[in-house]
Amino acid sequence: MSRVRMNKEERKKQIQNYALDLFLSQGFKNITMDEIREASGLSAGGLYHHYSSTYEILYDLMKDGNFLRGKSIQKAVESFGNTINPQIMAEIWVEKMLAYNKYIPVYVMFLCEIKNDAKLNKLYEKLKAITIQEFSQLLRKFNYIPPTEEEFDFLTNIINSSLLGCEILNARENYLKNREHLLLMLESYFAKIEKKGKEGSIEK
Q: Is the CATH number of domain 1-52 2.40.50.100?
């Protein structure tokens, strides 16, 4: 394979793309760094200059997926006139529940394997903490009180359960048919969160 001169970020993205294909075709736990090196055409030194393990590559893939979701949320809020209320929060959450892009299959694979892999579980908790922090900052930007950590856990579990159902049980079409019901359920939940948040703010 001929070498193409790339900057650091371009090379890392190239490695991620090769790794993504391998993870999805053979499973994360079955792929070694040597197989990624062989697929990418890099030398061992070239690969390890950017990544020391498959866990680091997977983490960056998950971060990219989070970044993509963050951009889609920002765009959604802007499309609603830069305002947030329970109805808009429900719209955002249902979109996240039914989302599909190249990162979703590997994220679902990631979720399936964290139970039996302490390193993956640690990465998951780190990613979740970053996601909560970034989403909370976005909500505050629009003067909306963020959910509590416990509420975020529940909402994250809803998203993850939906994505697992879509990818493993082929439930996406069924969810799409019942999208309005999902919106109503979540709007009710977000309305309760908003009310509790405002009451707590007044008490302070």
A: no
